[in-house]
Design brief:
single chain, 153 residues, alpha+beta, two-stranded antiparallel ribbon, 27% strand, elongated
Length: 153
């Protein structure tokens, strides 16, 4: 992008009244990436958890661990957020399911934050289930093409 002095982007924002145009110096909208998680274990009756894997507890632990990526690994002056927006698993109140799936998004302004979050969500799932090798977990993440080259500097 040579010889370009200004770039303007348009986006709707429910925080401003309809018909207004608002300007801000610098970046306004963050880059985005999505992720999908699958955890597989062994189903069992809820009265006998020792005969299976509680993948519901496993995904809950994973979600809590991922929140620490933002609060403990990311530089506090850089912007970033991880949001889990979907959890699917189970079919009965008295059965621990065989699998659970979760999905969500993370946002960032700087490529270094994107890289950190991607790396840590993968590392967290690898380390998080080591105590129980019968649980198999997988994370897939994908950056939105819209903001792939986000970099403040």
């Amino acid at each position: 992008m040579r010889n370009i002095s200004y770039v303007f982007g348009l986006h709707g924002d429910p925080n401003y009244p309809l018909g207004n145009v608002c300007l801000k110096k610098g970046e306004v909208m963050a880059g985005a990436a999505s992720f999908d998680i699958k955890i597989n274990g062994k189903s069992t009756h809820a009265a006998f958890p020792q005969y299976g894997n509680d993948v519901i507890v496993a995904i809950a632990d994973y979600i809590n661990l991922c929140q620490k990526i933002i609060s403990r690994f990311k530089n506090p002056v850089e912007s970033g957020i991880i949001s889990f927006t979907m959890i699917k698993g189970g079919f009965a109140k008295n059965i621990l399911p065989e699998k659970v799936e979760a999905a969500g998004t993370f946002r960032f302004f700087d490529k270094s934050v994107e890289k950190l979050i991607k790396q840590k969500i993968n590392t967290t799932i690898e380390v998080g289930f080591r105590p129980d090798p019968t649980i198999k977990a997988e994370v897939k993440s994908k950056t939105s093409n819209r903001r792939k080259n986000t970099n403040r500097r």
